[in-house]
Amino acid sequence: MTRPPARPMRADAVRNYERILTAARAAFAEQGSQAPLDDIAQRAGVGNATLYRHFPTRQALLEAVHRDHIEALCRQAKELLAAPSPSEALMSWLKAVVAQGSTARGLAASLMAAIGTQEESWCRDAVFASASALLARAQQAGAVRPDVTVRQLLKLVNAIALATETEPDRDEQVGRLLDLLLDGLRATSTS
Amino acid sequence: MTRPPARPMRADAVRNYERILTAARAAFAEQGSQAPLDDIAQRAGVGNATLYRHFPTRQALLEAVHRDHIEALCRQAKELLAAPSPSEALMSWLKAVVAQGSTARGLAASLMAAIGTQEESWCRDAVFASASALLARAQQAGAVRPDVTVRQLLKLVNAIALATETEPDRDEQVGRLLDLLLDGLRATSTS
DNA sequence: ACCTGAACACCGTTCAAGT
DNA sequence: ACCTGAACACCGTTCAAGT
Fold first, then answer.
1. Burial category of B168 from C-beta neighbours within 10 Å (exposed 0-12, middle 13-18, buried 19 and up)
2. Does some domain include residue B93?
């Protein structure tokens, strides 16, 4: 239900939808993913109930805001599936995931929440699909432990993104932590 | 300031202090670390302002509630410093940290918040001291990468605890994720 | 000194009334 | 259909008044 405009939408509704997204993007960037929804509505120049009408939950709003980023990640995953080295492809993608999560404040929290949820989540499904394909290929190539699940992998990667969100030297930190994790993922050469 | 009773405390104040702790422990266990403070005050049979008087912030209350657990972890760290294998000592301790974080709901979040904070935190100092000693010993023994910092280590470990907090098969998950991390921490034998 | 309930502020959610 | 502001509920924080 956080999918596109569905079908026919009144012109003012479309405009409000877009304005809310723009306002939310700015608010999340400035104040983090806990930014007050009333603030966002006010920035967008709409009533608070209108925000709620378009986005029933905060999670829905977060996913919509980060939709471009997530779609970019999915596209990148698709390209990487054609890369020569399955393990390097997976590694590259995970780095991109954390990079996105670090750049776009709130994306990490958004993903983490989506991973955990039981409910319908377009965001989770998309990310899971991308990660699954890359992981499976790396495992079939014998480059990554066969007992690692997509869920575990994403949880860990997002945990890193979360853990470093407020760090002063974010980029440096992310690189090192991710290297640690990726080393742990490697299948031991001696079976 | 989350330290012990300081100095002379009126009898009823001491009793209230204890009752709040007991109530908070139960509330955090049932509802997680976001349990309403008003609920806790009501359970304890005190005014909400009394809770606030004893514990100025939620963080202070969380630390006080988990004080026993944290002290247990510190004691264990001290013992493990005398263990024959520095690397196994570190590994054991980290497992204990996650186990505590998983058992006592809210502890993981509490620690994570403490690690990140700039402010005075008895909790953070104690855990940092324990972790530092064990990590340094393992690094000096050449068993763990020399470029891993205490901060990174604790962030990762707590991220695992956080990431698995709501998992159905928690114990299983924790074990596997921690193994992955610990493998990554190992110094490569070929220098 | 310490406790208390009430007041205040803030924010999410719902609803009756508008167009 | 969709929008709106106001109402309501919830919770954290502060304060004036009590003992």
1. exposed
2. yes
Rounded mean pLDDT, B40-60: 93
Distance CA B161, CA B30 (A): 17
Number of folded domains that form chain A: 2
If one compares B125 and B163, the residue with the highest pLDDT of the two is B125
Q: Report the chain B residue with the minimal C-alpha distance to residue A175.
A: B152
Q: What residues make up the domain containing A113? A: 67-185
Residue B63, judged by CB atoms within 10 A of its CB (0-12, 13-18, 19+), counts as buried
Binary contact (B112, A163; C-beta < 8 A)? yes
SS3 B186: strand
- Kindly report the pTM of this predicted structure: 0.74
Residue B115 shares a structural domain with residue B151: yes
Contact residues, chain B to chain A, C-beta under 8 Å? 112, 116, 145, 147-148, 152, 155-156, 158-160, 162-164, 166, 173, 176-177, 179-185
- Is A38 buried (19+), middle (13-18) or exposed (0-12) by CB count in 10 A? exposed
Read off the CATH number of the domain in which A93 is found: 1.10.357.10
Are the C-beta atoms of B59 and B113 separated by less than 8 Å?
yes
Q: pLDDT tens digit string along A130-164?
A: 999 999 999 999 988 888 889 888 888 887 887 67
**What is the pLDDT of chain A when averaged over all its residues?**
84
